[in-house]
């Protein structure tokens, strides 16, 4: 049987080529990225970024404290909310500001151990030379806005995200 005589002739094939299918997928992806900004606002990310800043600064504070074991209370993290509706995270190493990060709160509220951090207020966490929190307490830091994010800060100085209430 000759293939050109059967139903497999070139003129009877139909469908899309692989290149056409890939182009449709790529264009759909590009359009969905552009359209996603219509459904989410920058305000939705303020708490998420704040949560990540707390966790990264706490991890850095622990590492610095372990490296400065000969210094009493070598590291502190000050969290404040200034009058311009911005959270300011200041990591202090042996009395000198080592890292300062500003993050717009975009209307989200910051609660530390259930108490709202109002404009002009601040809270200080300090790590000792063994990389533990000086006050020996567990802390819960929540960012409440369009979304809610919770960070638990253990007495051992370790920070982690939690979907449920932090242990006491």
Can you give a write-up of this model?
The chain is an alpha+beta fold. It has a single domain, classed as 3-Layer(bab) Sandwich (minor pseudopilin epsh fold), CATH 3.55.40.10. Helix content is 28%, strand content 30%. The chain is built from two helices and nine strands. The strands form two sheets. The protein has a five-stranded antiparallel beta sheet, covered by helices on one side.
In short:
This protein has helices at about 20-40, 45-65; strands at about 75-80, 85-95, 95-105, 110, 115, 120-125, 140-145, 150-155, 160. The chain is an alpha+beta fold and about 170 residues long. The strands form 2 sheets. The chain has a 5-stranded antiparallel sheet with strand order 5-4-7-8-9, covered by helices on one side.
Label this structure with key terms:
single chain; 168 residues; alpha+beta; minor pseudopilin epsh fold; 2 helices
Hey, roughly how much beta strand do the residues contain? 25-35%
User: Radius of gyration over alpha carbons?
Assistant: 26 Å
CATH topology: minor pseudopilin epsh fold
Main beta-sheet strand count, sense and barrel state: 5 strands, antiparallel
Task: Give the overall form.
Answer: elongated
Q: Please trace the helix and strand order, writing H or E for each element.
A: HHEEEEEEEEE
Helix content: 25-40%
Number of domains: 1
Main CATH class: Alpha Beta
The count of helical stretches stands at 2
Indicate the CATH architecture: 3-Layer(bab) Sandwich
Structural class of the helices, strands and pairings? alpha+beta
Distance between the termini: 81 Å
How are the strands ordered across the major sheet?
Answer: 5-4-7-8-9
* CATH homologous superfamily classification: minor pseudopilin epsh domain
| Contiguous runs where pLDDT drops below 50 for at least 5 residues | none
Please tally the β strands and state the result: 9
């Amino acid at each position: 049987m000759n293939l050109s005589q059967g139903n497999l002739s070139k003129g009877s094939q139909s469908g899309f080529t692989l290149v056409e299918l890939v182009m449709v997928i790529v264009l759909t992806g590009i359009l969905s990225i552009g359209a996603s900004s219509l459904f989410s606002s920058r305000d939705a990310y303020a708490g998420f970024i704040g949560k990540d800043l707390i966790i990264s600064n706490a991890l850095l504070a622990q590492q610095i404290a372990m490296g400065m074991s000969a210094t009493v209370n070598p590291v502190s993290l000050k969290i404040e909310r200034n009058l311009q509706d911005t959270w300011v995270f200041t990591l202090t190493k042996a009395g000198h500001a080592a890292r300062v990060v500003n993050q717009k709160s975009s209307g989200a509220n910051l609660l530390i151990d259930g108490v709202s951090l109002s404009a002009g207020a601040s809270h200080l966490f300090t790590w000792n030379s063994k990389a533990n929190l000086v006050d020996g307490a567990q802390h819960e830091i929540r960012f409440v806005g369009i979304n809610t994010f919770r960070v638990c800060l253990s007495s051992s100085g370790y920070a982690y995200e939690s979907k449920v209430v932090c242990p006491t």
